[in-house]
Design goal:
Largest sheet: 9 strands, antiparallel
Order of helices and strands: HHHHEEEEEEHHHHHEEEEE
Oligomer: single chain
Shape: globular
Helix content: 25-40%
Structural class: alpha+beta
Strand order of the largest sheet: 4-3-2-1-11-10-9-8-7
Strand content: 15-25%
Amino acid sequence: MDDLKELATLLAKPEPAAGAMARSRSRLLDRARGRTHRRRTGWLAPALALAAAAAAVTVLATGAIAPAGTPASGKEVLFMAAASAERTPEGAGRYWHVRREYRGVDIPTHESWTTRDGRRWSRGRPDAPAEVVVPDPNPLRLKGAEVSIEELEELPTEPAALTSRIAALPGLASAMTSSEQRGDPLFSLVALISELPAPPEVRSAAFRALAATPGVENAGEVEDGQELRFPNPDGGPEIRMVVDPESARVIRTNYLYGGDGGLSWGRDFVWVTAGWTDQPPR
C-alpha cells in the first residue's frame, strides 16, 4: 500500500473511494485470469500483483474505472516496470555486460564488457573478426558524450529531477539528435532502461518519466512482454520496444546508441540483454 500511495502522489491527483479501488483491482484480476493459459506459471503471481498495483494507481490518480477486459495502457505497463525496478536487486559482478543480437539479418551479435573504472572490451566490432574479443576504446555514452558508472549512480531518483538533470548534462553536439539538442530526454531515458548500468532507483525514475511521455501506447502482449510505442520527437519512425514489466527489462527495441554515441535505428528489433557478471570477456 505504501508503494501505491507513493505512485499516486507522483501523479498528484485526489484519492477516490475505497469501492472504486476494489472494483479496479477486480478488473485487473479478471483480466489476468482470462489469460493464464497463455502465461507460464512463474510469471503470473508477481505480474498479477504488479497489474493490480498499477490498476490501483490509475484509480487513485484519476478516479476513473476502465471497462472490464480493457488491456493495460502504455502508462500502466511503465508503472508496473517502475515498481519492479525498485524491488529488483542491482546484481553484482566485475563487468557490465551488454549483448545485442540481430535476428534475421546478416549482422554479427555484438557484446561488450565494461568495468567500473571504465575499461572495456567487445566482440563483434566491424573492425575485428566477429568472434574475437578486443579492447574497445569507446566509453559508455549518454547524449553522445562519455559518462561514467559513478555519474550514472548519482543521477536523481525522481522523474522530474531526472529529466531536468538529463537536459542539463553536456552532450556531444555532433552525435545528438535535434530533440536531444533541444533538451528532450526521451532517447536518454530509453538508454537508461535498456543498456546503461543505471541503479534500480534511477531506472525506476526513468520508467516513470517515460510514462509521462505524450502519445505512449501499448500495442499489446507479445512474446516476452508488452510492446510499447512512442512518437519520435524528431519526426522519424516511431520508437518501439518490448518491455517485460516483471523484470523491468527491455527485451528488444529498434533504437540504440552506437559506439560513437550516435543514435541508430533499425527496421527490425534488436534483442538486448544487459546486467552485471563476473564472467570475463571471452
